[in-house]
Amino acid sequence: MIPITVVDVRDAEDLVVEVLRSGAIAQGPMVKRFEDAFAHVAGTKHAIAVNNGTTALVASLQALDLEPGDEVITSPFTFVATLNAILEAGATVRFADIRRDDFALDPDAVAAAVTGRTKVLMPVHLYGQTADMGKLAPIAAERQLKVIEDSAQAVGASFQGRAAGSYGIGCFSLYATKNVTTAEGGVITTDDDELADRLRVLRNQGMRARYQYEVAGHNYRMTDLHAAVGIPQLEKLDQLTAARQANAKRLTEGLSGTPGLDLPQVLPGREHVWHQYTVLVGPHAMLSREELSNALTARGIGNGVYYPKIVFDYECYQGHPLIPDARVEDFPVAGAVAAQALSLPVHPHLTESDVDQVIETVREVLGA
Predict the structure, then answer these.
(1) Active site annotated at which positions (predicted)?
(2) pLDDT of res. 296
């Protein structure tokens, strides 16, 4: 079986043992070391480590002091954590449709969605490529919107040389399957000194020093054990990313011309880090998306559907007061992509033979 992802953190053994032997395993110097390394990757002054990527989004929204009725515009095609974080922060969610070429927010749709209550623009950098920040950032600046980038899948990605997470507040996930993992964990990046200070107080139960409470805070801390797992990956991130890019290039070359299959693009000016290699199985393909997925699984090729529905198209969100007037039919591109997207293995632990097997199997079952 060629898995859709492989987690290998054996390089972290020495640092993990160092933390265990120290007897101090909660947030400490290893977290600081991890934060410094992550800030370097993101090109920001600050990186604030937290306990998961959802927390990064929630804390960032909380730090903006949004009021009831304030709106956040985001993508309808994303993991549910994006939506859940906005709801937890008590903001009203507005969606804008996506573009098919990058799976991210359509700037024209965003401009049309802004109202007098919109306070935050939350683009989602999906599958390892940034949204079109060259158009989205100016819209946010013109409309005086704060930018919170859901960069969960985009560590190391960039737009015209500027790293994901550096356009406002960046929120990253370090979940087990991400390009950099600490098993569970998250990071918030920013150049704003005051905001960074507030986030560090907020993650520590609102304490600046022991029993010196400044705000009603939370326990959002990362442990030194988790940080120790992530540090070696940051040190070799360029190498890991290059392997993903080489695998993606090989997949694109091998799958080009496969009937009914639309391949992912690296758009001009963007550095794609290939968290996922996601194809679209169109209506003219020999097999449906589900049939192709089942055929690949039966032949030992791991694959995944990320994501099968528009994010709010679940019973638990129907009629939610903070998701007013959200209708699936209003987002035709997101709906079509959700029905066709299928991700293939692209992780850095694939051999050339593995990639060739993926290509040959996909082409075979689709009659190419």
Answers:
(1) 178 (proton acceptor)
(2) 98
Backbone angles phi, psi at 177, to 5 degrees: -95, 0
CA distance 103 to 120: 20
- What is the DSSP track for 91-156? PEEEE--B-TTTSSB-HHHHHHH--TTEEEEE-B--TT----HHHHHHHHHHTT-EEEEE-TT-TT
pLDDT in tens, 178-217: 999 999 999 999 999 999 999 999 999 999 989 999 999 9
**For residue 263, what is the DSSP state?**
P
Identity (one letter) of the amino acid at 184?
E
Task: Determine if the peptide bond prior to 307 is cis (ω within 30°).
Answer: yes
- Copy the structure tokens of residue 299: 């032949």
pLDDT by residue (tens digit) across 11-49? 999 999 999 999 999 999 999 999 999 999 999 999 999
d(CA 209, CA 350): 47
Distance between CA atoms of residues 325 and 330, nearest Å: 10
Catalytic sites, residue numbers: 178
Evaluate whether residue 4 is within a structural domain: no
Cα 159 from chain centre: 15
Residue 328: what residue type?
Answer: V
d(CA 182, CA 51) in angstroms, rounded, equals 10
Based on the number of CB atoms within 10 Å of its own CB, is 360 exposed (0-12), middle (13-18) or buried (19 or more)?
Answer: middle
Domain span including residue 251: 237-365
Same domain, 135 and 193: yes
Final residue belonging to a domain, choices 204, 235, 266: 235
What pTM was estimated for this model as a whole?
0.97
Choose one of 207, 235, 263: the last residue of a domain: 235
Cβ of 212: how many Cβ atoms within 10 Å? 9
Q: Find, among 69, 119, 114, the residue nearest to 90 by Cα.
A: 69
Question: Is the domain of 207 the same as that of 119?
Answer: yes
CB atoms within 10 A of CB 216: 9
